[in-house]
Specification:
Radius of gyration: 33 Å
Number of helices: 2
Helix content: 55-70%
Structural class: mainly alpha
Strand order of the largest sheet: 1-2
Order of helices and strands: EEHH
Largest sheet: 2 strands, antiparallel
Shape: rod-shaped
Length: about 110
């Protein structure tokens, strides 16, 4: 099983009013949590970006490894399918030969 490195980040969603009926209950600005960009220093923001970059790098590396593994599995399945096709053709030839022999024995052709 392949895991993915992820960071969870809180995001604030502001709902809009559609027509004259609001789609949700309005919230007061004082009840909303402060945005992290307003309370973080530039160093803290850079640190967060570095962490996210590292997590994304790990995720991409895992996806590449999984892709290679999937590719090798597909190649193996292609080889097996080709062998199955060859075996089916051989069985069809054998069936044709037997059909000819039976026809000859029964007095046909």
């Amino acid at each position: 099983m392949v895991g993915l490195a992820q960071l969870v980040e809180r995001q604030i969603v502001v709902l809009e009013v559609v027509g004259s009926i609001p789609t949700s209950h309005p919230t007061l600005l004082s009840q909303r949590p402060p945005r992290y960009t307003e309370t973080m220093t530039i160093d803290e923001r850079l640190e967060k970006l570095t962490e996210r970059h590292e997590a994304l790098t790990q995720s991409v590396e895992l996806m590449i490894a999984e892709g290679r593994e999937t590719s090798s599995r597909i190649s193996a399945l292609e080889r097996l399918a080709q062998q199955d096709g060859e075996n089916i053709r051989a069985l069809a030839r054998i069936a044709e030969i037997h059909e000819r022999r039976l026809t000859g024995i029964e007095g046909g052709e």
